[in-house]
Design goal:
This protein has 151 residues and is an all-alpha fold. It has a single domain (11-150), classed as Four Helix Bundle (Hemerythrin (Met), subunit A) (Up-down Bundle). 72% of the residues lie in helices and 0% in strands. It contains five helices and no strands. The protein is elongated. The N and C termini lie far apart (39 Å). The structure holds fe (ii) ion (FE2) (2 copies). Residues 61, 76, 80, 115, 119-120 line the site of one fe (ii) ion.
């Protein structure tokens, strides 16, 4: 885990989603060692991981939004797409410059945190207001159950 932990108030208390949020922050923080090194190969690899994790997280989050009938899912999905575009834009700037700066990392951290605090906040409130409780066992377990049910 990196130096930044998600504040209690912003936790979904849904383990896999909270873990994904923390992983996203840790991944962006792992860029720190490459500041001013011109090691764009590693930086690009981390941005690749970041994109994959964002896509997986957005898909999981939006699935739970639909399952719990969160009314703003369409608008939230637009925010997700914008965040993907923004991270690609920052990577393009880094690759064009040939090195990573502290400012690039701050920008990434800010965009990811802003989304978690401001955009994910209303969904968190929604989950609390409907009394949503994480299903027992892991998501993998529920996937297994589904397979058993559907044969
Ligand atoms: Fe999220
Ligand atoms: Fe989100």
């Amino acid at each position: 885990m990196g130096t930044f932990s998600i504040p209690e108030v912003s936790l979904y208390r849904i383990k896999f989603l909270d873990d994904q949020h923390q992983e996203l922050i840790d991944l962006v923080e792992s860029l720190n060692v490459f500041v001013d090194t011109e090691n764009c190969f590693e930086v690009e690899k981390i941005f690749g991981k970041l994109r994959d994790l964002l896509i997986r997280h957005f898909s999981d989050e939006e699935a739970l939004m639909k399952e719990t009938e969160f009314p703003d899912v369409a608008q939230h999905s637009v925010h997700h797409q914008e965040l993907l575009v923004e991270t690609e834009r920052i990577l393009t700037i880094i690759l064009g410059r040939g090195s990573l700066t502290n400012h690039d990392i701050d920008e990434c951290v800010n965009k990811v945190l802003r989304h978690m605090f401001l955009s994910d906040g209303p969904f968190n409130t929604h989950l609390h207001s409907i009394g949503y409780v994480e299903k027992s066992g892991s998501r993998q377990k529920s996937d297994e159950n589904l397979h058993q049910l559907t044969g």
